[in-house]
TrEMBL record:
GO molecular function annotations of the record: acetyl-CoA C-acetyltransferase activity
Start and end residues of each Thiolase N-terminal domain: 5-254
Protein known as: Acetyl-CoA C-acetyltransferase
Thiolase C-terminal domain: residues covered: 263-384
Enzyme Commission numbers on file: 2.3.1.9
Matches recorded under Pfam families: Thiolase_C (PF02803), Thiolase_N (PF00108)
Family: Belongs to the thiolase-like superfamily. Thiolase family.
Region (Disordered) residue spans: 203-227
Keywords: Acyltransferase, Transferase
Keyword Transferase: yes
Compositional bias ranges of the Basic and acidic residues kind: 203-219
Length: 385
């Protein structure tokens, strides 16, 4: 069987809304990691057969196939094409899947996968009715569809509503979510202080480290925040942060490894994606993980580290309840509640961190999953070499 290897993985620091990366063109964010990726890997950029980047809300500076724009803005060879992927929050994880599938099929040997996103410049504009209202829009993307309305009625399609439904279904209270959020910040601060992110991060100008983690947060401060909806359990403290950033990985075949003298760092062990209730929207990592474990024959005990995107604390806590995973193996360096969630870039940001943490700790298998708009979830299992 052919193999697909991760040769190199890098990311920018994650900038907070209005922070040090907020005025940077998203193509320049992407260009920065692409140039750094190729320099670190030592591979010939002209040998890359495609650049697959995730990005959500591809309007304004993120329009026009930003994957192609990023590569050209980096000064890399014009003959290398690019394509932009939108699987909502899992866009760059899906980019890795597409890149790996090209290699596993034998049709490609060297593919770049990654993502870029400037949420400071392009807010989540079209993902929900809630987001549409401030823009003067009367409907989100679903409400105008007769077929959708016939199937799902007028129920709100909204990530905040979905996260509340999860908290309700799995009996997750506000205090439990705030305790989880505090732990995310504490783990992220520890990772920063111990230099765990230094190998994976390529500074951008004066921004040298992730801007999101809050050293001074506390349960008392979180308890004072108003809920995001009347009578709800969610607050801003238990939600992922609005962020800017980019990340990228180089995926190679055995032939490319041999011909270019590359050193593979991990093997793509499994790729899958599943869907479920689009109204609840964010609980798909639960059935997707079960599906991936069944397909691979692995159990959660075989998994050394997990990265599950912290879109909301309720998402991860429900997943922990259903999978029985050891919390000490999950998001060990903090997650999106502390580090931020630059939508299209988060998938490869998580996988970059997962790879480096497996190397730091000597673990073998790492599993990554993320909730995504439309009630979907990708799962990737990588094996450290």
């Amino acid at each position: 069987m052919p193999e697909a290897y991760i040769v190199e993985a890098v990311r920018t620091p994650v900038g907070k809304r209005g922070g040090g990366l907020s005025a940077v063109h998203p193509a320049d964010l992407g260009a920065h990691v692409l140039k750094s990726l190729m320099e670190r890997s030592g591979a010939d950029p002209a040998a890359v057969e495609d650049v697959v980047l995730g990005c959500v809300d591809t309007v304004g500076p993120q329009a026009g196939d930003i994957a192609r724009t990023c590569w050209l803005a980096a000064g890399l060879p014009e003959e290398v094409p690019g394509v932009t992927v939108d699987r909502q929050c899992g866009s760059s994880q899906q980019a890795v899947h597409f890149a790996a599938q090209g290699v596993l099929s034998g049709t490609q040997d060297l593919v770049v996968a990654g993502g870029t996103q400037s949420m400071s410049q392009i807010p989540i504009a079209f993902a929900s009715r809630r987001a549409a209202e401030p823009l003067g829009l009367t409907e989100g993307p679903y409400a105008g569809s007769r077929g959708w309305r016939a199937r799902y009625g007028d129920r709100p399609i909204d990530q905040f509503h979905g996260a509340e439904l999860i908290a309700e279904k799995w009996g997750i209270g506000r205090e439990a979510m705030e305790e989880f959020a505090l732990r995310s910040h504490q783990r992220a601060v520890r990772a920063l202080d111990e230099g765990r992110f230094e190998r994976e991060t390529v500074p951008f100008g004066d921004v040298r480290a992730d801007e999101g983690p809050r050293r001074d947060t506390s349960l008392r401060k979180m308890a004072g925040l108003p809920p995001l909806s009347e009578g709800g359990r969610l607050t801003a403290a238990v939600s992922s942060q609005v962020s800017d950033g980019a990340s990228a990985m180089l995926i190679a075949s055995e032939r490319a490894v041999r011909e270019h003298g590359l050193t593979p760092r991990a093997r793509i062990h499994h790729l899958s994606v599943r869907g479920e209730d689009p109204v609840r929207m964010l609980s798909a990592p639960i059935p997707a993980t079960a599906y991936a474990l069944k397909k691979t024959g692995l159990t959660m005990d075989d998994i050394d580290l997990v990265e599950i995107n912290e879109a909301f604390a309720s998402v991860v806590l429900a997943w922990l309840k259903e999978t029985g995973a050891d919390p000490s193996k999950v998001n060990v360096n903090g997650g999106a509640i502390a580090l931020g969630h630059p939508l299209g870039a988060t998938g490869t940001r998580l996988m970059t961190t997962l790879l480096h943490e497996l190397e730091r700790t000597g673990g073998r298998y790492g599993l990554q999953t993320m909730c995504e708009g439309g009630g979907q979830a990708n799962v990737t299992v990588i094996e450290r070499l």
